[in-house]
Specification:
Number of helices: 9
Radius of gyration: 16 Å
Structural class: alpha/beta
Strand content: 15-25%
Distance between the termini: 11 Å
Length: 209
């Protein structure tokens, strides 16, 4: 069984649908801790490490692995994983690895707190290779998300993507942005984290069993 730690309930049906499409039969258990993202935005991700560790411990109970779908707390989660006894995977790491193969990368986010963890992860995956890494913050998009205006949110992200500067690849830093890729007109590859993240977690369980 794979446990998923989310910071928004909107991710539950997304990952259930991906499981049904790509990994039928994979058992998922969802844990939603919205307060973790709120606190990370206010206090910084590193300051909430104890709370993340507690959430991971709860998620890991009875699970073969834990997938953390929030990019803001993903790095902190990895550092808290040593004593859990099960793998803890960042949902955005496979996406970052794919992006790091390009020379020019634009990272799009609706939350400023997501940018630095995502940039750090892409640089880590680039392993010292020189890359042109730029950011694009979608002003006002997160307010639409919080108001429950999913279409408005995705349209705002898609518009930002289509207006991005010249680049080889565009990274959607937050899992909630994934469906915006289908609303873009750009010819540039647009990467999101849910599908490759779930694929990596499913493989981790298979190889670990």
């Amino acid at each position: 069984m794979l446990a998923l730690l989310h910071t928004s309930p909107v991710h539950v049906p997304v990952f259930d649908a991906l499981r049904d499409e790509d990994h039928p039969g994979l058992a998922l258990r969802h844990l939603v801790e919205e307060d973790l993202l709120a606190r990370a935005r206010e206090e910084g991700p590193e300051s909430i490490a104890p709370a993340v560790a507690t959430a991971l411990a709860g998620a890991a109970e009875g699970a073969a692995a834990v997938l953390v779908t929030c990019s803001t707390i993903g790095g902190v989660a990895e550092t808290c994983a040593a004593d859990l006894g099960v793998p803890v995977l960042r949902g955005d790491r496979p996406m970052a690895a794919a992006a790091a193969a390009a020379n020019r990368i634009v990272v799009v986010a609706a939350l400023r707190s997501t940018l630095e963890p995502t940039l750090a992860l892409i640089r880590e995956e680039a392993a010292g290779r020189a890359i042109d890494l730029r950011t694009l913050l979608v002003d006002g998009a997160w307010e639409l998300f919080e108001a429950g205006d999913r279409d408005g949110y995705l349209d705002a992200v898609a518009a930002a993507v289509d207006g991005a500067p010249a680049t080889d690849v565009i990274v959607l830093a937050q899992a909630s942005m994934a469906d915006a890729a289908d609303r873009t007109t750009t010819a540039v590859p647009v990467l999101s984290s849910p599908r490759p993240g779930l694929r990596a977690a499913a493989l981790a369980i298979t190889h670990g069993s």
